[in-house]
User: What shape does this take?
Amino acid sequence: MANLQYIKGLRTRALNAFKKELDNGSQCLDTDVSNCDRIKVADDISKSIKKLESCSEKLQFQSDKVAETLGDKEPELKDAILNEDATLLDKAMDIIADLQFLKEKLNAAENKKDEAMDENLVQRLFEHQMKLQEEFFRKQSENRQVANKTNIKLP
Assistant: This one.
């Protein structure tokens, strides 16, 4: 029976860590990404995904251990534990999928931002090049006029 208490304690510890990571993942989903550091948010999302996956594995392992230890002694408790864990693991998978989708959206938005910056840079370079060409043609025209005035025709 001491073994069962020990395994239940490990499961409870894994369950508490798992619930904490579920809350952290939910908070990442609630983050307003329009006016924050996208790199930091993407890093937080990646960390949250890894932690959720790790805690999911630990909880699954501890649930299996509890079910194995209980065996046929307490079927209602065993079913309740397995159902609770299955529900939480399913919720975690949903949050992980949503976090991955959010991360992809962030990356796509970052790429669009980079493309817009590149287009703006190209536009400014184009305008600068046009100014330089206009100045070049103006100076060439002035040089021709000066050359025409200074030309002396000899008989």
